[in-house]
Each structure stands twice: as structure tokens, then as C-alpha cells.
Amino acid sequence: MKPPVSDCRFHLAFTVDDLAAARRFYADLLGCPVGRTSDRWIDFDFADHQITAHLVDAGSDAAPTNPVDGENVPARHFGLVLAWAEWEHLVERIRAAGHPFRIEPQVRFEGLVGEQATFFVDDPAGNSLEFKAFRRPEEIFRPRP
């Protein structure tokens, strides 16, 4: 898959042990605008790319996850924000190949700011990738009221 560069953005999710410190670093120091947030994660606009800081609890031996719209999302993941049609095409390509989804394709935050189609797959080494598409691409960094 080689999506058009003009139609996609990079997405990277990483773990932090202090959300307030992450906000001070990325928003205040680096100047990244803050997008949607929860008590467990913060989206940042990183030069028009979406990065997400996920809070993880210290001392946990399990692969960290955070609840996002009813799913246990792997805190460490990366992926792309695609155009809606490209996302749908990729879903069908993965289904046709018989590759399992870690989190099945779905629409998240339906009817809200930031409504998006999303799914997760793992690569052969166990790295989680998220592919998403925004119903209204101009809302990728818009916080919810």
C-alpha cells in the first residue's frame, strides 16, 4: 500500500508516566497544539502529524493499554491517518489476505468532533499499527467541546 502523500498523515502513540509533564514538554516547550484529551492520553499536532501520549502505570509487566471508546488500545503503536476511501480499501485488502485484526474496523466517536474509522493490526514481530480516517479531516486536531 502506498497512499498518496498529500492524503495521509503519520500517527505515533507512545507511553509516558506523567501526562502533565508531557503536556508541558510538547505543548508549552515545543509549541505543539493540543487536540483531544482524556485522563489517560493527549493528542498533539506535531507539524501536522498526530502524536499521542498514553499514560501507563509504573511497574506493570503487561503490555500497556488504555481504554479508548470502549476498546483496550495498545499504548505503544504507530500508523497512518488515511483518506476515508483509502482506509476502506486497506480494510478489504487485509480481510482478503486473512490477516487478523487486533481491534476490528469500526467508527469511533460517532457523531462527535473527531469521528473516525479505525482498526489495529499487529505486524509479525508483534508491533501494533493503527490505521484511521477522519470523517471530517479538518477535525484531526480539534478538541471536543
UniProtKB/TrEMBL annotation:
Start and end residues of each VOC domain: 8-134
PROSITE patterns referenced in this protein's UniProt entry, alphabetically: VOC
Entry-linked Pfam families: Glyoxalase
PANTHER family given in the database record: PTHR39434, VOC DOMAIN-CONTAINING PROTEIN
Protein name, entry field: Glyoxalase-like domain protein
Source organism of the structure: Rohdeia mirabilis
Lineage, top ranks: Bacteria, Pseudomonadati, Planctomycetota, Planctomycetia, Planctomycetia incertae sedis
